[in-house]
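1st attempt posting a full record on here, be nice pls
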Amino acid sequence: MISQHALFRARALKAHYAIFNKKNALDADTNDTPVVRAGEISKDQATSDETPAWFEPSQPIPSENIRYPHEPISPSEKIYYEACKKYYHTTGKPLIAISSRDDIELASSRRIRLGIDEDYNTFDLEEYLNKFCQILNINRNDVDILKVQSGSVLAEIQIQTRVNLQMVYNNISKPEAEERMGKMKIFFCFFGDLANMDQNVEFRNNVKLNGDWNRIYYQGHTYWTGALNSHRNRGSKPYYCPVGWRRYSLFMKNTGTDNGRTGRCICYHGTKFEYGLAILLSGLKPASAAEHGPGVYFSPSINYASHPRYSEIKKIPLEYQNSFSQSGKYIQFVLECRVQPSKIISIEKETLRATDVSNPNVIDPNIKDSEIEWVVSIKHDDREIVDFDDPNSAITCSGLMVRVTNNHPSLLSESQWWHTSHLCADNRCCCLNADLTDLKTQKKNGVTCSVVFD
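the predicted structure (as tokens):
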């Protein structure tokens, strides 16, 4: 809040200016209520002088008369932030996204954009910023307000150079920060290079408007058998059709030398529901992406990556069913990644105890069980192993694979191997989100399942 000295100083200067220039001290359109604009008088300036003896104190200036740079929200931004708000209402958590760790010391990364599910006309930004700064463990005067947008409340702030960005990065990534922001009705928080984020917003809108950017892999849509033979350079490993999945393309920066796709091998990595939903709705890497740090294995088989040990199965809440499918009941997310061939240091066998000595292809008819896990080296590379928009990273994430089914996916024909592999009722190990005994009974009774694309 603006200090009492700041108010005294502001009015004293205004009165002195009016006498000297023979003008009215107050603007006519403020009904004799003085207006202090953000950044007009600093805290240091306001408290450096004593209050003049002749100056009579008056009531504090109403917060609604403290004006911040404001601009309306654009139609494309409205669509984007409504999607982010959907994540908040679905999960009860804010969508927190962060720039690459490599970029956090750049000047452009000192900015934070907040989306707050409040009425713009009755919103107290100063109160919220004080609480938000407590989460970051910094002082309110360590941040400057750059602009505020209406349509809910969208605030853009900049962290001053005296603040250690690594500390902010660490604090904003903590689970307790997510919980506290959720209680403050913050539905979106991006920390980092906003220019790059704005490019992503534009890209996401193009993806939604142009179906050619996305793919449905199924008969009657995009479909092939065996290894794909095309003119594109996808590295030294074969690429097989991920049948039954829908792919959503993700934005990646183009450096002019490597767009993060050319010459790289396609592989997959299962992920949690909340993580996948955040990517689907925003196209951004959530702060929780740190869980995919060094030591994570990848697979050239989406069948293997979709096992509930790696990819959480989630029953779609009834109120959000139409957001994904008219008839779908369950959903899974898998990351489509691209790896530099030189970074694959070893190819290993499956680790879910699914192997049958009489059948070397239990999991995937195209890939041997003994060659289904890739170990990726990140030595001499301080970047996170999975990066969404850095083509120089060992692994780039180029798409989000989504599978929606009309029953539990363990009943799909391509998932029958789950029941002869490691499969347990502990959701901390196998994220089935269903009763395992009931699933086995359904399987025994011949109950089936199908993928849906409606």
